[in-house]
Amino acid sequence: MSTLVDLFSYVAIGAGAIFFLAGTVGLLRFPDTLTRLHALTKADNLGLGLVVLGLLPHVAGVLPALKLIAIWLLVLLSGADASQLIARAARRGEPRSRPGP
Amino acid sequence: MIEVFHLVPALLIGALAVYTTVARDTFAATVGFIAYGLMLTVAWVQLHGVDVALTESAIGGGLTGLLLVRASAKLRATEAAARAERPRASTRLAAAILAAAVSAGLAIAVLALPDPAPTLAPEVLANMGPTGVGNPITAVLMAFRATDTLLEAIVLLLALVGVWSLAPDRVWGGRPGPRYNADPDGILAFIARVLPPIGIIVGIYIFWVGADDPGGKFQGATIVAAMWLLVLMAGLTDAPPISRRLLRAGLVAGPVAFIAIGFAGVATAGAFLAYPDGWSKPLILVVEFALMPSLALTLGLIMAGAPERAEAASPREAAP
């Protein structure tokens, strides 16, 4: 049974790491702000979600598990909002956070 | 495998430190510095210094990073002119020699430390009982080395005085920072309504668990201050004028309570900041509860910046 649980964790955390890697590659390679944001949210949402999912069977008790899920939900909330703000600033054509070269 | 996990953050910290130093663009250097703070946090977690890691991410990376972002935004107008100026070769050589000497001195000091390093940790653990506190870091900060903590709280007040002193005379006593006008139905206003209730609970929780687990008033106060800033930047409320009595009373309440309990210790326990037998835990709690709101207020106002708008005359003052 514990081998099965470990296997589940390996697969979930490994898949999460792949999403983080893909998100990072996308952030570096995609051509404009909106597509880069698209890549980044995959790392935040799915990558972290899968890592949390993989860690859940290994925490002692319900409270730490709820804390992990709460962290994921907070990252979802802040990530989505920050993306919206960056996208809006980019569409205004006012690159506030990126000074010219 | 373990070595790899320790080596990667160490290498990244070094690389980020170099990047932050050599980046020509102020904003790029600031981003490098924030990433550097985050990697330091990871390193502290790996060294099992979770208390330090929390402080590093909250104050070292987050709060200082935001201060630097604001400073770099203000410097943007003069950035090109500043970059066009190059110091003379002799100045640069002197700076390089000084920096190399400091680095070498630090390296020698670290390498010359006896192994195992001298430690007071067993003494702390042996004497923690009477303090009634379960987290050894908190026992050191609030009982054995309470003077340091008192001075830290006062240093933050001095920093705030430094920020305020940048205000031009005509707006002295006015409201800090610009008046933010975000879209009232926009995403910023939305998050500024949803997040603060959660953030305040998390801040108080981190403050409360500091007695027995990693956490404490500085980290908790930073989170509460961040929530306040979020509400300010979303334009949902305005920063109070710095001449307001109540505000200033709130700023000094924590340190004053700390100092008062310190002097009470002279009478009751024979030394400044000593706690009489059996009273450690309640007195530490009183100090922590008094300091937390003052710290949150101080940190929030440091981030809000120098006064920029003169306060409109209040009806009471306008009356004859």
Tags for this model:
heterodimer; A: 101 residues; disordered C terminus; B: 320 residues; mainly alpha; 3 domains; two-stranded antiparallel ribbon; 12 helices; 2% strand
Order of helices and strands of chain A: HHH
Strand content of chain A: under 5%
Shape of chain B: globular
Q: Point out poorly predicted stretches of chain B.
A: 313-320
Descriptive notes:
The complex is a heterodimer of chains A (101) and B (320). By secondary structure, chain A is mostly helical. Chain A has one domain. Chain A has three helices and no strands. Chain A has helices at residues 2-29, 33-55, 62-91. Mean pLDDT of chain A is 86; it is low at 97-101. Chain B is an all-alpha fold. Chain B has three domains: 1-75; 88-115; 119-311, no CATH class. Chain B is 72% helix and 2% strand. Chain B contains twelve helices and two strands. In chain B, strands 1-2 form a two-stranded antiparallel ribbon. In chain B, helix 8 (187-209) runs antiparallel to helix 9. Mean pLDDT of chain B is 86; it is low at 313-320. Chains A and B meet through helix 3 of A and helix 8 of B.
Summarize it.
Chain A has 101 residues and is mainly alpha-helical. In chain A, 80% of the residues lie in helices and 0% in strands. Chain A has one domain.
Give a topology summary.
The complex is a heterodimer of chains A (101) and B (320).
Chain A: H1 2-29, H2 33-55, H3 62-91
Chain B: H1 2-22, H2 26-46, H3 50-84, H4 89-111, H5 121-127, H6 136-144, H7 146-164, E1 175-176, H8 187-209, H9 217-233, H10 245-269, H11 280-304, E2 307-309, H12 315-318
Antiparallel strand pairs in B: 1-2
